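Justification of computing resources. Each target in the renewal requires a structure prediction run like the one illustrated here; the chain below, 346 residues long, is used simply to show the kind of job we budget for.
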Amino acid sequence: MNHYLNHALIACALFLNTTILKSQQLNYNLPTDPSNQINIPPSPSAGELGKFGDFPVSLATGKPDITIPIHTLKSGGLSLPVILRYQSDGIKVNDKASWTGLGWILEAGGVITRNVKGIADEKPKGYLNQGIPDANAIIPANNHQYVIDVTRGKHDNQADVFHLNIPGLNGKFMFQQDGSVQMMPYNPEIKVSYNITGGSITDFEVIDANGNTYIFDQAEKTNATNYLIDAGTPTTAWYLSEIIAHNGLDKIQLDYYNHGDRHFDIPDVETHYLKFISPTSPNQYSSEVKKSFDKGDYTVQNMRRISSIHSNYGRIDFDHSAGNRLDDPSDNDVRLDAIKIYDAHG
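Resulting C-alpha cells:
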C-alpha cells in the first residue's frame, strides 16, 4: 500500500509543480519582454487531440479510460473508430473547451500538431536552416551577439515538438538538423516524411508498421506575432485526410470544413532572470528580477472541423451549429450537434 501511495504523491507533486523559467538577460538593449519565447500553440480541438501523445492511458498512471465508442468505419483491412474520450488528467484554469465540451475530445481521424519553439523549424531563420554553435561558443562571455540574436528572434535555438495521433498510434517527433525525423520514443517501424513548399510544411506522410499510409494535409495556422519576433504565421496542425491500405486499394477519406479564424487567450507568464552588471564582468550579476506579463491572444487561421468520413462501406456525417455554445454565449464557435451514420446504400 505504501508503494502505491508514494507513486500517487509523486504524481501529485509533478502535477502541481509550476515551472519557473531561469534565464540570463544581457544589458545590450535587449527586448525587455522575455515572453518573446512563448511557445505558439495549436487550436484547442487540435491540442486536446494531441494530448494523448503526452498522456497515454496506462494502468501505471492510475487514470481511468473514459471513452464512448460511436462507430467504426471500415474499408477492407482498414478500420477507423469514432470515439468520444475524456482526458482525465484534470482541467486547468486556462484550458479551452473543444466543440464537444471541456475535457472531451472527438477522436475521428487523426492530427499532427506542433508546438513552435521560437521560430518554425522550416523558416529561413528556423532550426533546419541555421546551425547552432557549439556550447562553448555561445556562453555570454564568448559570444554576446548570438545570445542577443536569439532573444530578438533572429536565430532559432531549439527544435519544434510535433505530436502524432492516429488510430492505434500516439507519439512525438522532432526534426534533426539534417532534416531527418526522430520519433520519441525511438520507433524504426514508423516512417514520417514531409514536404516544404514556399517556406512552409504543407503535408506529412506517415507509414505505420503494417505498411498503411496516412496523409495529413489539412492545415491550420497560428498567428502570435505579438509574442514571437519574426515568427510569422506558422502551421501548427495538419489533419488526417486519407488512409491508404498497404495493398493500395482500400481507402478511407476524411473531409473538413473551414471554420475561419478563431481568437484565443494566452495565459499569463511569470519569468525570473538575472542581469549582467557589466559586459566586462560577465560573472557579476544583479539580484534576481521577477516580472509578470499580461495575457494576450493568438489567432488560429483556417480552423478545421471534421465534416464527414467515408469509404466504399459507408459514411459518417458530423452536424454542427454556430453561435449557441452554452459555456460562452458571446462566443461564435461551433458545437457538435449530431453524428449520423450511413451504410454503403446511404
